[in-house]
Write a structure and sequence with these properties.
149 residues, 8 helices, repeat, metal-binding, 2 strands, EF_hand_dom, 56% helix
């Protein structure tokens, strides 16, 4: 289901979330990791709902299975990149922020202003207003940014 490099990335994520290092992700682990990310007022009901997404205790195998189920149906990275390439006729690897924003806020399942703000916070354009769509595709399919080589 996953490449070895992806499994390693998920293992690292699991280790970060498993704050008490007992091999199981609990409500307390989720509360602690969310607090480290600045989300201090998470309701107990929200944490309960997160933990209940699993059929039992969330060990690494369950964690990996949950991600597999969430990603099932997601296109492979090369397919998503190819879709973006249609919008990049000069094959620069970048698309203008304004163009992406216009498409995402006026077509099909329209993004809200908040969703656009979140998108640009996660994938800020360069000083010329260009967005690296290959980076977006990588994160969609792998869950985190590529490390510079």
């Amino acid at each position: 289901m996953f490449e070895q490099s992806q499994i390693q990335e998920y293992k690292e994520a699991f280790t970060i979330i498993d704050q008490n290092r007992d091999g199981i992700i609990s409500k307390d682990d989720l509360r602690d990791v969310l607090a480290t990310m600045g989300q201090l007022n998470v309701k107990n009901e929200e944490l309960e709902a997160m933990v209940k997404e699993a059929s039992g205790p969330i060990n690494f195998t369950v964690f990996l299975t949950m991600f597999g189920e969430k990603l099932k149906g997601a296109d492979p990275e090369d397919v998503i990149v190819s879709a973006f390439k249609v919008l990049d006729p000069e094959a620069t690897g970048f698309i203008k922020k304004e163009f992406i924003e216009e498409l995402l806020t006026t077509q099909c399942d329209r993004f809200t202003a908040e969703e656009m703000t979140n998108l640009w916070a996660a994938f800020p354009p360069d000083v010329a207003g260009n967005v690296d769509y290959k980076q977006i595709c990588y994160v969609i399919t792998h869950g985190e940014e590529k490390e510079d080589e």
